[in-house]
Amino acid sequence: MTISENVADVLTNVANTETQTGHKTTVIGVTKYVDADQARALVEAGITHIAENRTELFLDKQEKLSDLSITWHLIGTLQRRKVKDVINRVDYFHALDSIKLAHEIDKRANHVIKCFLQVNVSGEASKHGFSPDELAVVLPEISNLSKVEIVGLMTMAPIDASEAELGDIFDKAKSLQMAIASQALPHIPCTELSMGMSQDYQQAILHGATFVRIGSKFFK
Ligand SMILES: *Cc1c(COP(=O)(O)O)cnc(C)c1O
What we know:
Pyridoxal phosphate homeostasis protein, Ala_racemase_N, alpha/beta, globular, 17% strand, single chain
């Protein structure tokens, strides 16, 4: 299938799923597998939110597509020493996974940076992110950082999760997000949920995702 056929397919599925939930979901196109020309084709087919997971590729794509109107997401683990190179070019950062990183972002940012706290809901050892218990401790500290705005939570399900396990992980992320939002801490609105990828985006939307991150599905 062509990129535009894939886009039409995904957007139709998202629209149908949204009708069931009654909430809006933004589709983010993950372009880490492809070059700038294919990323351009994705934008021209209607996906205007674009994500990369590595600083160098992020900056490279952004430069090559600077003539297009794009909302830029950085989704991968960010090393503290690279924060200064990239953070002021990012519209949304999805992988805030340590308090030290939050301090570094606050220090280097020229304006308020929209961030998702990455949470490890599944407890998988290989996954980055705060455990639900750690969140209670770090939230008051993060809320003191005026340039870090916690717009929501981001989570990743294990690739081998069953349908039931997926539902459970997405539901846990949703209840955590709502519990944090209800605390109404300064700089922590936490109204959004970034979860769901090519394999599980429809299920994620049914469980409350407001951003889905889709890569491979667009490029095959
Ligand atoms: C690569 C990647 C995605 C997209 O994964 P696909 O399965 O290709 O849709 C989503 N989120 C993160 C953090 C990624 O690194």
